[in-house]
Amino acid sequence: MRPLTWILATLFWIAASPALSQTATMKTALGEEITLNLETLEDSRGYLYCELLFDYGDKGLDIYSTSHRGECSLSWWNALDLDALAKERGAEAVHKNGPQRWAMDRIGMMLSEPTQVAGATMGFGAHLPAGTMGTAHYEVFNPAKYQNLVYKAGQPVYQLVDPEGHVYVLQGYKVETEELAKLGEMLGKLPEGWTYRVETADEDLVMNLTPAAPIPSVGDELDQYFIRIPE
Predict the structure, then answer these.
(1) Three-class SS of residue 34?
(2) CA angle in degrees (0–180, nearest 5) for 216-203-199
(3) Could you tell me which residues are beta bridge partners of residue 207?
C-alpha cells in the first residue's frame, strides 16, 4: 500500500468553476460535519508541507495538512508514532504523505480551523473514498477537495500528458527542486504513450476545484500528484 499525497502547448486562463466561497462544509469519514474556511497561501511555490491520511477502511480517508499552518517540522515528522496516532483517532491506520513542496505560485484551500494532531498544528482539508490507497501509479482517481491553484505566467509548469492528450499539472513534489527539469528521466515506470514535459506559462493558469465536479488526478512512482486541467 503506497502513501498518498494528487497543458496545452499554449497556456491559457481556465476557470473550472466559479471562485470558491469563503466557507463550506464537508463530512469526515466518521460522519462529522466540519466547517471549512478559504485560506490563501501566497508565494507557495517551494513551500514545504506534510500530510497525514487517517484510514477508516470502508469509510474512506481523512486528510490533515500542515500547509497554511507553517512549514512542516521535519524533526516532528520523523518522530511520529503512526500506530499510536491511529489508535488515538480510532483509525485502522495512518499514512504519511510528505514531506513535499507546492509546485504552484498561489494556493487557496478550504481548511478547518487549526487543530492539534500529534503535537503539530494542522487543518482538515479533504476526504478520499475508500480504496484510494490501492490506486495504481498513473491510474486516474478523483479526490474530493476545495482548492484554488494559480500557476503564474513566466513560471515553469511541470506536466504529464496521457495518450489521449489530457494534461495533468504537478501539485506537490518530493524530489529536489533542481531535479524537476529532468523529472521525466527519473520516471522509469511511465506507461507507454505518457510523456513528461515542462512548459512556461504565457498567462496565469488558474484552476478552481470543488467536490461538485470530478478532479481527475494521477500519482507517479515517486508518489507525486498531478491534477488534470479541465477541458
Answers:
(1) strand
(2) 65
(3) 149
pTM for this entry? 0.82
- Name the burial class of residue 51, with classes exposed (0-12), middle (13-18) and buried (19+) by CB atoms within 10 angstroms of its CB: buried
Phi, psi angle pair for 229, to nearest 5°: -75, 125
C-beta neighbour count of 129 within 10 angstroms:
14
- Beta pairing partners, 96: 52
The one-digit pLDDT tens for each residue of the chain (231 residues) are: 344 433 111 112 222 233 446 888 889 999 999 998 999 999 999 999 999 999 999 999 999 999 999 999 999 999 999 999 999 999 999 999 999 999 999 999 889 999 999 999 999 988 888 876 667 899 998 887 778 999 999 999 999 999 999 999 999 999 999 999 999 999 999 999 999 999 998 999 999 988 788 889 999 999 999 999 987
The secondary structure of 182-206 as a DSSP string is GHHHH-TTPPTT-EEEEEE-SS-EE
Phi/psi at 114 (5° precision): -55, 135
Q: Do the Cβ atoms of 41 and 68 come closer than 8 Å?
A: yes
